[in-house]
Write a structure and sequence with these properties.
Helices cover about 35% and strands about 25% of the residues. It has about 230 residues and is an alpha/beta fold. Bound molecules: adenosine-5'-triphosphate (ATP) and magnesium ion (MG).
Length: about 230
């Protein structure tokens, strides 16, 4: 579960990126996070991953209290959260397979587990036939799917995706969004940041809308108020 209680985040004195955000995302839930540029979406993501600490208020993620977490606990907390970055962050000189295996090795997984798990995850995202390619030999949508494979390989209970369809055409975007829904159906909590209003409106999911550091609407009807720039 992700829980924000009256979270304020200032990057500098007198300038609040978040002005008192309270929200709760239950285990297994799917939620979109939408809002104009500069409204605080990435700040919320960085608070969830522990990259930032709140100026005031509390953040709880999967049983960890992030405003009070000790440094040595952070790696354990991070294992519970998979992140899909907008810029993919793939390793260009490693194959598709090795890109995913690398994430497992980073947390000390055994080679045997890696040999079992990586093909399963690549199949799930539809990249099983491309495991020997390098990221530069993949299309944008395939690279995005590889980024998703990396986010989910360590079996996190939560996945956070920042603009996962950012650079994709409408058909590929729909495909990625459907894949995220499928992963959610397998039990993973999902928080998806997006500007793609048309996509959000296609899926009857919870939409949390933020503007100028405050939640302005939060509901299941897909309706939200925000002006895209
Ligand atoms: N490292 C930083 N130092 C100072 N101000 C920052 C920093 N990061 C973000 N901000 C400010 O905090 C506010 C929220 O930024 P944030 O990155 O969370 O917005 P966003 O909703 O993710 O926008 P975008 O859609 O453009 O990615 C903005 O006013 C931004 O200028
Ligand atoms: Mg952002």
């Amino acid at each position: 579960m992700i829980e924000f209680n009256n979270v304020v985040k200032s990057y500098s004195v007198g300038n609040k990126a978040l002005k008192g955000v309270s929200m709760q995302i239950e285990d297994g839930e799917f939620a979109f996070l939408v809002g104009p540029s500069g409204s605080g979406k990435s700040t919320i993501i960085k608070l969830i991953t522990g990259e930032l600490k709140p100026t005031s208020g509390t953040v709880h993620v999967n049983g960890y209290s992030l405003d009070r977490i000790r440094k040595r606990e952070i790696p354990y907390m991070r294992r519970t959260v998979g992140v899909v970055f907008q810029d993919f962050r793939l390793i260009e000189n490693k194959t598709v397979y090795e890109n995913v295996a690398f994430v497992m090795r980073a947390i000390g997984a055994r080679e045997r587990e890696i040999r079992d798990r990586v093909p399963y995850v690549l199949e799930l995202v539809g990249l099983d036939t491309k495991s020997r390619r390098h990221p530069g030999e993949l299309s944008g949508g395939e690279q995005q799917r590889l980024a998703i494979a990396r986010a989910l390989v360590n079996n996190p209970s939560t996945i956070i995706a920042d603009e996962p369809t950012g650079n994709l055409d409408p058909a590929r975007s729909l495909e990625i969004m459907s894949l995220l829904m499928e992963i959610n159906n397998l039990g993973t909590t999902m928080l998806v940041v997006t500007h793609a209003r048309d996509l959000v409106e296609r899926f009857p999911k919870r939409v949390i809308a933020i503007d100028e550091g405050l939640i302005i609407s939060d509901g299941m009807d897909g309706y939200y108020h925000y002006e895209d720039q």
